[in-house]
């Protein structure tokens, strides 16, 4: 590629330190958080201005070079993996909060802004940005937009799409367009182009500016931690809370393995010997929260919990959430490798789904740690395996597929917030007919006729955009990394 006109054109946009082509320079971009897959990009470019990003996309369209936009690389579905013979457009330096208006309760940010940094900037005005994925301290808002990320509090406040008012986007053909505005007044007028773009997994182009809605910080939190002797009872407790008519800010469940991981990783101080933990958090105006707190305690008491704790102050609340937020990363202490899925089931079927996951875990002889957003039925089973063992990854993927099929059979979805990426492409026909999929592809081709934006993702079939790890990691074989 180095002698091609495309590369020469890139050199006119980027200095050497922001146009990466050497093997060692590309290592950090060969995988995202789905570490079972790797692919080496031809080059990585690091724009520092929106104009550079726009010029790059236009060049890619002109020369037919595929590209993938990348933020912090926290995608758990392979959504930000490089594309064969393509480039990575790394957006981390487009990280400016362009505007923060406390009166309108909005912020205008670039795609490389870290999710948590929005709330930190808004804190002085007693405002915050509600979507809170577990990777909140590192994930970027551009990636959140691409995958319509949720988080622990999406039960009450919704997903990323519910908090985006406007977008400035460079489409895959290089056209720059704007959707929405800074006002709520335009919401619901005309086609929902923001809704089309948010969650499109990078298949249409790159969001350059995102106008997000900010919310007033709750006056009072009430955080309850309930311990159960079995996972199914904890799942049924969620249905009881929902049936009561209460709408907590968050409801999360962790099983025995996830609890063990959290204790190992962050010393959360959870109840000993619990088979499952339920975290329920109420938030809002003090008077309303106190009234709902009395009701929720009655429901929890009737749900079969053997121990109930209530956070007495902000420190105890943060300690409870520290364990939940750190559970994903802490599972790495229990196993050299794991796959995490994010299928969704109706809340009324939570107990049944958890029991089936336990049965499948025993059938396949693989441990499964469950950490999930119980309020909206968004499961996060983490399937533990050892990638050094021949066939172990494929065995774990087969179990993951059974879990996703179960979710669909129960009336749910193959993904709640992680997206399809490349990992779940094969399961799309389980949810959508051929007509549905062709309609999606037709819309994509109208916007990206050359299919260069995040090529190979989401849709089944076609050439895989990355190589699957089998046995020893290729970097391990070269002595570059070690998993000892």
Task: Give a quick precis of the structure.
This protein has 484 residues and is α+β, with helices and mostly antiparallel strands.
What CATH architecture of the largest domain would you give? Answer: 2-Layer Sandwich
The CATH top-level class label of the largest domain: Alpha Beta
Mean pLDDT: 90
Question: Proportion of β residues?
Answer: 15-25%
Described by the principal axes of the CA atoms, the overall outline is globular
User: What is the count of distinct domains?
Assistant: 4
Largest sheet: 7 strands, antiparallel
Judged by helices, strands and strand pairing, the structural class is: alpha+beta
**Number of beta-strand segments:** 20
Q: What spatial order of strands do you see in the largest sheet? A: 16-13-15-14-18-19-17
CATH topology of the largest domain: Uridine Diphospho-n-acetylenolpyruvylglucosamine Reductase, domain 3
Rg, alpha carbons: 22 Å
The N- and C-terminal alpha carbons lie at a distance of: 37 Å
Count of separate DSSP helical elements: 17
Structural summary, described in words:
There is one protein chain. The protein has 484 residues and is α+β, with helices and mostly antiparallel strands. The protein has helices at 5-13, 23-26, 50-63, 115-122, 141-147, 154-157, 193-197, 231-243, 256-266, 286-302, 314-325, 327-330, 350-364, 392-409, 428-431, 434-447, 474-477, and strands at 19-20, 37-38, 43-45, 67-70, 87-90, 97-101, 106-109, 127-128, 164-171, 176-180, 205-213, 215-216, 220-228, 250-255, 276-284, 307-310, 337-340, 368-373, 381-385, 467-468. The strands form five sheets. It has a seven-stranded antiparallel beta sheet with strand order 16-13-15-14-18-19-17, sandwiched between helices. Helix 1 (5-13) runs antiparallel to helix 3 (50-63), helix 8 (231-243) runs antiparallel to helix 13 (350-364) and helix 13 (350-364) runs antiparallel to helix 14.
């Amino acid at each position: 590629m180095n002698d091609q006109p495309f590369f020469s054109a890139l050199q006119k946009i980027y200095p050497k330190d922001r146009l990466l082509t050497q093997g060692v320079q590309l290592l950090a971009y060969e995988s995202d958080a789905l570490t079972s897959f790797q692919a080496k990009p031809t080059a990585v470019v690091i724009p520092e201005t929106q104009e550079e990003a726009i010029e790059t996309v236009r060049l890619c369209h002109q020369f037919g070079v595929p590209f993938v936009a990348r933020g912090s690389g926290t995608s758990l579905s392979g959504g930000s993996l490089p594309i064969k013979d393509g480039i990575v457009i790394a957006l981390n330096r487009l990280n400016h909060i362009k505007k923060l208006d406390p009166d309108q309760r909005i912020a205008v940010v670039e795609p490389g802004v870290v999710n948590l940094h929005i709330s930190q900037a808004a804190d002085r005005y007693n405002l915050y940005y509600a979507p809170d994925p577990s990777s909140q301290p590192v994930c970027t808002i551009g990636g959140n937009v691409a995958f319509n990320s949720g988080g622990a509090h999406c039960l009450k406040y919704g997903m990323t799409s519910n908090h985006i008012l406007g977008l400035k986007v460079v489409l895959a053909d290089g056209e720059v367009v704007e959707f929405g505005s800074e006002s709520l007044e335009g919401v619901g007028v005309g086609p929902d182009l923001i809704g089309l773009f948010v969650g499109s997994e990078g298949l249409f182009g790159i969001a350059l500016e995102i106008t997000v809605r900010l919310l007033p910080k709750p006056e009072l939190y009430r955080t309850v931690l309930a311990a159960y002797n079995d996972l199914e009872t904890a799942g049924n407790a969620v249905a009881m809370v929902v049936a009561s008519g209460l709408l907590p800010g968050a409801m999360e469940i962790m099983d025995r393995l996830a609890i063990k991981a959290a204790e190992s990783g962050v010393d959360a101080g959870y109840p000993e010997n619990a088979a499952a933990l339920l975290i329920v958090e109420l938030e809002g105006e003090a008077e309303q929260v106190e009234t709902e707190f009395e009701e929720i305690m009655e429901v929890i008491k009737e749900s079969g919990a053997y121990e109930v704790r209530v956070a007495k102050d902000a420190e105890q609340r943060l300690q409870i959430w520290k364990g939940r937020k750190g559970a994903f990363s802490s599972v790495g202490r229990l196993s050299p490798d794991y796959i995490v899925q994010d299928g969704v089931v109706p809340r009324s079927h939570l107990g049944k789904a958890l029991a089936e996951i336990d049965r499948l875990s025993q059938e396949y002889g693989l441990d499964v740690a469950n950490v999930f957003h119980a309020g909206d039925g968004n499961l996060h089973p983490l399937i533990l395996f050892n990638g050094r063992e021949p066939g172990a990854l494929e065995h774990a993927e087969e179990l993951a597929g059974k879990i996703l099929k179960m979710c669909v059979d129960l009336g749910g979805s193959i993904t709640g917030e992680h997206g399809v990426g490349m990992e779940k492409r094969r399961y799309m026909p389980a949810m959508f007919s051929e007509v549905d999929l062709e309609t999606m592809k037709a819309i994509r081709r109208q916007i990206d006729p050359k299919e260069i934006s995040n090529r190979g993702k989401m849709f089944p079939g076609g050439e895989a955009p990355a190589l699957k790890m089998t046995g020893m990691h290729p970097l391990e074989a070269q002595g570059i990394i070690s998993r000892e």
